[in-house]
Amino acid sequence: MKLTADELRRMEALHVRAWPAFETARIGGWLWRHSGGGSQRANSVSTIAFEGMDVSAALDEVEARYAAKGVKARLQSCSLCRPESLPELLRARGYAEGETTVTMVKRIADAEADADVEIGEEPSEEWLQVYLGAITESRRTTNRRILAGVPKPSAFFAYRKSGEIMSTALCVAEPGHAGGCAVLECVATRAESRRQGGARAVLGTAETWAHRLGRDLIGLQVSETNAPAVALYDSLGFVGVDRNRFWTRG
Questions:
Q1: Facing residues of 107 across strands?
Q2: What CATH number should be reported for the domain whose range is 106-242?
Q3: Cβ-based neighbour number of residue 194 at 10 Å
Q4: Strands of the 217-223 sheet, one edge to the other
Q5: Which of 77, 80, 106, 241 could bond to 237 as cystine, CB 3.0-4.6 Å?
Q6: CA 183 to CA 105: how far, in whole Å?
Q7: Which residue intervals of the chain bear CATH 3.40.630.30?
Q8: For residue range 59-77, what is the model confidence (pLDDT) as tens digits?
Q9: 97, β-bridge pairs
């Protein structure tokens, strides 16, 4: 599968929009983000756009802003990062390459929603318990707050079986009408309920929801080292189209 440069840019930009940081600032077109906690996206600089003339000065400001928060500077790069030479500039400045996430995308197809999947405009407390229970403790408080500010149009999906929620997902769509894309977040399953179809059910129903909004593409980002998740998404027709890297200054 091959996306146009515009489709990929819109997909990456929607991933930024779907996970809003508490504090932001524009630095030459880059989006500086800070939220505290362990969320990498909400505590890094999105480098999709850059209109500045002096990259070194922009990096100086990035580092000064993070230093004022008492944390190390972190930037996020992908194939669309600007300037294109940013990874080399970061290495020369003493940044180390950290976790890599894969952006996976598929063309949306019409399908029936799963009858066991509930769709809500807000996350229920039980939905939060399942999702937050599947992530590291350092991310839980911050991510709970981020979820309270997720932009519309969006929906929260919960696969319920035997009276309890087994799996969760969040889908955020580009604003507008026909066309565009949607992204998936917060795909999680209770440890004791894995390999029982819950993740497939919420993902399929989320795709149906996006299709009914008239969206053409749906995507997600997953850690490159999470082999079981990558295999699941691959089996559902998602294809890797880009990689995001997080750079932290030592």
A1: 217
A2: 3.40.630.30
A3: 13
A4: 23-27, 30-34, 45-46, 74-77, 239-249, 95-107, 217-223, 181-189, 164-173, 154-161, 117-120
A5: 106
A6: 9
A7: 106-242
A8: 999 999 999 999 999 999 9
A9: 247
